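Deliverable D5.2: sample structural annotation.
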Amino acid sequence: MNLEKTKVIYICDKICLFSIYAVVFFLPISKAIIETFSYLAIAIFFVKKSLERKSIPYSYFYSAILIFTGICLASVFMSSNSAISARSFLGKIIHRVAFFFVIADTLNSERRLKNAIIILFFSSTLLGIDGVYQFFTHKDFIRHRPHDFLPRIYATFPSPSDFGCYLNTAIIFVLVYFFIKSRFKFVKFLLICLFILLFACLMLTASRGAWFAFIASILFMSIWVRFSPLFFIILGIYVTILYHFHPYIKVVLNRFFIFLDVSSVERRMMWEAAWKMFMSRPWLGVGLGTFMFNFRKFVVPEFSYIAYAHNCYLQILAETGILGLLSFLSILALFFYKGIRMMVKAQRVFSWYVLLGSLTAILSYSLQMGVDTFFYSVDLGILFWLILGIGIAAAKNLEAVKIVN
């Protein structure tokens, strides 16, 4: 390889890295920016790979992703509306899967992973401040949108549930980073402050799905790292204070396991429509991206508007059939199998903690997928593949450390 080609590859690599960092920072702020930089990263990545003449290495996990992509493509040809399905396939599936491969290949060192997570902390700090500002002023200072979910907050996101999904991801990495040894004591203090800020916002979203996912995340994480009893005591005191001084949170906590409100009833109607849609074409579904196009045919006449399924698994099932859902679940299963197996065997270096954070964040995201459709939104859809890519990059770094040792 000549010097000029090596220089071009180096520049391409840096552009890909910068683009990933930009997506991490702007993910909750601007959909246009994250789409621009993710497409730029994909284009430059293909240039880089063509110059290197290296293919993506084979693995069962990568094969599962490609099978899922292939089934989504098949659903395009069997779709009830091929134009919608083709746009969804190119603009969502291909785009996000390609960006995943960019992340998994580019974040190939501890330093790069660390930078990505630090950028996440800066971005989440800004969002946390925006959330608190919105709570007191009833508007966010980033997008200047009116506060339509009083007394719940959502910052730059379209709904409190979306904000809760993002907050859970950020909180998980804050907690994981807290257990990494650092020479600087003030880092621990900053992480505690960031946790308090983000957890306050999480409570103020009053999103039961996000709260369920947070509890599950803490339980999963406590298997791997020892949580101080003091943490749970402080958390309990904090929730108790909010319970007594915030009337709406008190109402939500009181009905935590009661699902008779309007939102829960509407969700059940959406789920019934999704199930009927799946049963009409069980193998490959009604077509990728066509749920809303077909919704009116399967929902009860009394339902007043067209909506997503508010359950990602049911929507995948309705749009791409049982083959689509099984292939997607295989991605999750292989990720957890590979990740947990690696964590049991590997030393607890930095990449080990990043992998723990990714596994926990994907668990949280997967649970919330059962009550909402984050997977189909621009920002949170990319977030899923971003977390997945960071996890695979961390696992590859752990493998490299193991080989060196």
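Annotation notes: The mean pLDDT is 89. Residues 375 and 381 are 4 Å apart (CA to CA).
The annotation will be released with the project's public dataset once the embargo ends.
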